[in-house]
Design a protein that fits this description.
Layout (H helix, E strand, L loop, with lengths): L1 H8 L2 H28 L2 H29 L1 H24 L4 H13 L4 H15 L4 H32 L2 H21 L14 H4 L5 H30 L5 H19 L9 H21 L3 H29 L5 H30 L1 H21 L17
Helix pairs in contact: 2-3, 2-4, 2-7, 2-8, 3-4, 3-5, 3-14, 4-5, 4-8, 6-7, 6-14, 7-8, 7-11, 7-13, 10-11, 10-13, 10-14, 10-15, 11-13, 12-13, 12-15, 14-15
């Protein structure tokens, strides 16, 4: 199945889309480490990093909406170059020991100009698949492949930042991110496949803008909750490894979870087609609940590795299923916007939960932070069992991209 996916996408698109989305995974941690080192204040670093996350959360859907209306090529090109300049500006300001206010503003600009390569790559890949006459199983395979690229980027990105910080300076990692944005973001924008997701002229985009079913909003909320699980898990892992006297293990534990999640994502292509997306969603959220509970009870480093890696097996299937349901639920003219909403929801949920769970971990220990992850999982499950996804049947040829 993945051979067909690679044949469909070609050899260049996956490479430039992966390298184009890698800076997003580098900038959050990179900005925190850079500002913390140059300012000597964790509070200032947290404000700059929080502004970056807030900018991405708010502006991500706007960039997706513009891509739906204007096409991906110009929007991604402008955002990639603007983001490269904003990230470089943040580096220069931090090295110049600029005031906190300027660092916050530049952090917000760096977040607001993220070119949303991940969501737009999904939109583009799905459009290529639908245009070729692919069935739903092939589309699921494409989404699994894109999800795996995301997972690998979010494991490799922080690792590159940590390596650069250890060998040189956090500024080196962010300057590398800026270079990738300028080069690979531009390559992704100008790739011929950008035309596959161009706006349709056969239906009124304005007429479709108010036609999102309620289930689409439930899918967005569940991604915020998924982000909350990420943030709470990160806070709990950090707190527990510090308590166990092995703080350096925190990044490795989180990376191990990402590796397992990526492997589980690849396996989604093998799920039989007879198991529908609604059933997959409920099964994935049930797994999130069951596999997150052991985190609250873990009290050793080995136990933490086991619990986190096992939980990672549920993350990618849930993410891929929600992306797949969204692709089949929303109108084609709002697909990029909707994909960007999902990604922004993860970022926003992660940032909020990290702030809340970090405070709980400081006062009540790691189990309190992990409890937030369990609660978020339970709410995900409740949504999946109380929401009936609305999957319309195409009634005209132009709807073949959103069956």
């Amino acid at each position: 199945m993945y051979r067909d996916t690679l044949s469909l996408l070609g050899p260049v698109l996956p490479v430039v889309s992966f390298l184009g989305r890698l800076p997003t995974a580098m900038c959050q941690l990179g900005s925190l480490l850079l500002v913390a080192e140059t300012s000597g204040s964790l509070t200032t670093a947290g404000l700059a990093g929080g502004a970056l996350a807030a900018g991405q959360t708010v502006a991500g859907p706007v960039i997706g909406r513009l891509a739906d209306r204007r096409g991906q090529r110009g929007v991604v090109l402008a955002a990639s170059l603007a983001n490269a300049v904003a990230v470089a500006g943040l580096v220069l300001a931090a090295l110049a020991h600029a005031a906190t206010g300027w660092l916050v503003v530049l952090g917000a600009l760096a977040g607001a100009t993220v070119p949303q390569v991940g969501p737009l790559a999904r939109t583009r890949s799905v459009a290529l698949a639908r245009r070729s006459g692919a069935d739903d199983r092939t589309v699921t395979t494409v989404l699994s492949f894109e999800g795996t690229l995301d997972e690998v980027s979010f494991v490799l990105g922080p690792a590159l930042v940590g390596l650069a910080a250890a060998l040189a300076h956090p500024a080196a990692a962010l300057l590398l991110a800026a270079a990738l944005l300028a080069c690979c973001g531009t390559a992704f924008a100008l790739h011929p496949s950008a035309g596959a997701a161009r706006p349709t002229a056969t239906r009124s985009v304005a007429a479709e803008r108010g036609r999102l079913p309620r289930s689409a909003y439930a899918l967005r909320v569940t991604m915020v909750l998924q982000g909350a699980m990420f943030g709470a898990s990160q806070a709990g892992i950090t707190a527990l490894t510090e308590k166990l006297g092995a703080p350096a293990q925190a990044g490795l534990v989180y990376a191990a979870m990402g590796v397992m999640s990526a492997a589980a994502g690849l396996s989604m292509a093998a799920v039989p087609a007879r198991i529908g997306p609604a059933v997959r969603w409920r099964a994935a959220t049930g797994a999130l609940v069951v596999l997150s509970v052991p985190l609250v009870l873990v009290d050793s480093l080995v136990g933490l590795y086991v619990a986190v890696v096992v939980l990672g097996a549920a993350y990618a299937p849930h993410l891929i299923t929600v992306f797949g349901l969204t692709e089949r639920t929303v109108p084609a003219s709002r697909l990029a916007e909707s994909m960007a909403f999902l990604t922004s929801g993860v970022v926003g949920g992660q940032a909020l939960a990290l702030a809340l769970s970090g405070r709980l971990a400081d006062t009540h220990g790691a189990p309190a932070a992990f409890t937030v992850a369990v609660v978020a999982a339970v709410l995900c499950a409740a949504l999946s069992w109380t929401t009936r996804p609305h999957i319309p049947t195409p009634t005209a040829p132009e709807l073949t991209t959103s069956p």
